[in-house]
Every structure is written in C-alpha cells, then in structure tokens.
C-alpha cells in the first residue's frame, strides 16, 4: 500500500499542505528517481496522512535518517518508560526515589559550590548556610522516607539513633519519630494478608483482634489479639500478631540499588556500609527465620543467666508462624524511646522550660562538645548543660542529675495528685445532668513512666555484649523503639528479624579488640585490625595507614564517638572528619561490619539519653571472660 499523495489529501487537511511542502523542501533533496514509499505498518497510526505522504517518503538524506531514528527512539523510549512505570513496581519506585532525592542532592551541591567557589564564605558562614539548607530539607527527607516506606524507614530509625551528636541535629530530630513507628495500614488489608498467609478465617483464629495496631514499622505492623482456644475449657491466649506488608520483598532489591547509587553520589566513603545492608536485611523478610532467632536467643540468654532475670524475649506462638505472619507472647511495657523523651520533658519542666525540645537542642550541642573532647564515659545526664539557669548542677556535681530527676518525678506526682483531686471534686460538685459540662479531657492525668533509665541502659549494653562476644548470636537492631521497659524493671527485647551471627574466631577478634581499646593500646588495636582482614587507604594512596588511624577507626566501631583531632604516628595532627572523608575501605571483615553497627546503636542510644558511655569499658569484663575460656 502507498501512502496518499497531496492530491488525495482530505479537504479538511489541505490547509496544512503548504507546511508539509516546506518540510519536504528543507529535509529532502530533489528527487531524480521514483520515490520509495515506506510500508504503512512501519509508521505510527497517530501520524496524519499528509505528513506520512510527504515527510516519510524518499529520498532519505542523512539528515532525514538521523531525524527519523531520533523520533523513533523518543517514541520507543516513551512507550517503554510508560509500560515499566505502569506495570513494574520496582521501576516505579526507582523513579519515585530519584524524583524526591535528586532535588535534595542538587541543592546541597549548589549550596556548597556557591558558598565555597563563588562567595568564598568562611567556615562559619558555610555552616550557617548549611543549617538553613538542613532546616528546609530535613522535613522533606522524612516525607520521602514515609512515602517510600520499607527499608528507608529502617535506615532512618538507625540514623536517628546513632546520629546523636554526630549528624546535624536537624536530621536527627526529624528522623526520631520513626523510632516509634510509621503510619499504619488499614484493617481490611491486614486481615486479607493474615487469611491468605494462614489459610484460615480471622474468626477461626481469634476471639478478639484489635483493629488499631500497637506498633507499625518498616516492613510490618503489630496488632494485639486473643487466640481462640484449641480445646473447650482452655483459656484464650493474649498475643501480638506481626504482619508483613506484601510489597516489601518485591521492592527490596530496587530500594537497595537506589540507595547504593545515592550513596555513591552523596557520601562515597559510606559505600561499604550501604552494600552490607543488602545482606543484613534479606533474612528479615521471612518471619519463620525470625521465629527461629527468637527461640535461639532465648535459649542462649537463659544459658548465661540473663533471661528471664534481667530481660524478657517474647515466646513464639507456634500456631501462627508463616513467612508473612508471626504470633508472639504479649509483653506490657513502655518503649525506651518514650522513656527517654518523658525524662527530658520532666527535667525541662523542672528547669522552668515548656518541654524537652529546647533541652534536647542544648544537650545535642553539649554532646557534640563532649565528643570533640574525646567522648567516652562522662558525666551522664543534664549536668552537661552547665548554663546559668543550672548553677545548682555546678555546685552539686554529678549527683545533681539524680536530685533533679527525683525532683521532677516528685513534681509530676504532685501534679497528678492535684489533677485527681480536681477531677474528684468536680464530680462531687456536679449533679447527674451536669456530667457533660466538664469533660475529663480538660484535666488529663499524665501517664506515669516510673523507670530507672540509667540501669535500663546498663542492662541493654551488658546483655548485647553477652550476645555478641559469648553467644555469637545477637539482635542487630536494638534501637529504642525495639526495647520495652517492663513494670518490674526488666527489659523486653523485641524484633529479632535482624540477627547477626559471629564465628568463634570472629568473637575472639572482637574480645581482643575490646581489651586493647579499654587499655588504650594503639599498637595492639592496629595489629588486630590488620591481622584479621581490615584494609583501608587514605586519598594519598597509602595502603598501610598509621596505627593511630586504625585505633581511632576501631574506637568508633567498638568504643565511643571521638571527634578530637587525630595525632598521626609522625606527630602530624589531622581533623578527624577529614580523615573519614579521605578514607576508602578496601576490605571490611564480618566481625568489624557487624560490631560497628551494634556498637554504634548502643553508643547512640546512650548519647540520646544524655548518658555517654565507653562501650569497651562496659564490655571489658565480658571480653576477659571470653578470652579466659579460650586459654
């Protein structure tokens, strides 16, 4: 079939014929032979007959061929993009990630470039501009994380924990709400997942199922429920039901690929950390593995005498244990993140401040100063502030924190008692028909969180030291939202989806490193790192970095946050952040990779609670015990 010529063009399109002729004159050389015609099946159906007859007929100059190939490429690319975006969730997620992330990266690069290359700002002026950038982009970053969900929420939770005093405070504050959960899914979707995964109806499984979840996290959400008894006369069993979101596994690979690209562009020095996330999160997607982890860690902790005396790990309910749904024992308690916030709010009010936000900002600043002076165990708590409004702290010393917290607790008790009297008196003074005049919500009683936070943190650090160094199987994700403070003072350790395992050889390397760090033996620490497979290079290309550099790296991994200037073996002093920026890790053994994540979380939780620690000193007795067993 030949395409219509100009003479056969319908009347309604003849008005465009002069434009078609013009295109032909521009794009085609005069024909000296009979034009070749393209068959109709090679042309898109939406191209109108006049253009087809004039533009696509021969002869084909190089310019026309190039243009045709260009148009065909655009058409094919548009069709491919539309198809992938519509039907491939991983591709669509990639586009959504970069649509949100690219403007943040571009703006960061622009602010840096303009300040340093164009305006030639001083370091203080640059930091001021970056603070403005962070204040505007931190909420956008959290919104992006919430929209994407999945692994991005998990990363946000970790960064909000280990970043206290290390990352810009704007980001830490913006990410911190992720520790307590994320917006949950609706009951209809959750019930469909449960029924599909178990093969049973909700009414056959549960006597009661609370539609509102008690927690929602990166890959799943948790509901309180009561199991239907198997036999007549049995008591119903209260449990929690953990339900995995259906799209998490499908999007896992796309999420980590996007994260690796973003890290390469934004912070290439962290590439090894990002790559390790892929392996760490794979096992989290099968709840049957989490059930095995719960059982194994419970047995180990009972063997070492800390479960159930110091901690409680929820028992698995075997009746409901599938890849996407897991039933566990219900533990009543308050999350560690809530306890930290409650203490800071109470102390802030005792100091005459409205809430803990101002106090947290001041603490973050003081914590940063503490890290810049070497970090490690120091004066824990609010006496770190030392401002004029807290002269009592300077007079009384470290014991002032205990007194202030006691005062804050007593003040809360007085307030609650006064509220109770007001409510009781208002009820006595009302007639029955006046009940609705004064709402109980007008005088709410404050929720009491009566815990010894310092002891709870000590227990958390101690138990995870036993898990990593003695047992070799440990919870790799003890952020504050995964720790409960039980009414009797014990800890409830939740969420064993991410569990690390170390071989006896790796555990020995960790133990020896802990002892060397607690002794401040730089040569021994550096030797351990070299002999056990850790390799790094600075930008100068030197493969064998100084003992002082390796010791500081190990300190960050297994001891404390130390931002003080680094003195090299030759006496030269370097800013530690410059060292980190120039460092490229060439080989990271498993025990270092696993240890620095767990160590970073524990040090970060303690810093968040204004109780900085030296992890090496806390774990030294455990390390010594492990090494004695080897002898």
Automatic annotation (TrEMBL):
Pfam families assigned: ABC1 (PF03109)
Domain ABC1 atypical kinase-like: residue ranges: 178-344, 443-527
EC class (word): transferase
Molecular-function GO terms, alphabetical: kinase activity
Taxonomy of the source species: Eukaryota, Sar, Stramenopiles, Ochrophyta, Bacillariophyta
Keyword annotations from UniProtKB, A to Z: Kinase, Membrane, Transferase, Transmembrane, Transmembrane helix
SUPFAM superfamilies, per the entry: Protein kinase-like (PK-like)
CDD domains per UniProt: ABC1_ADCK3-like (cd05121)
Protein name, entry field: ABC1 kinase family protein
Enzyme Commission identifier(s): 2.7.-.-
Transmembrane regions: 37-56, 65-87
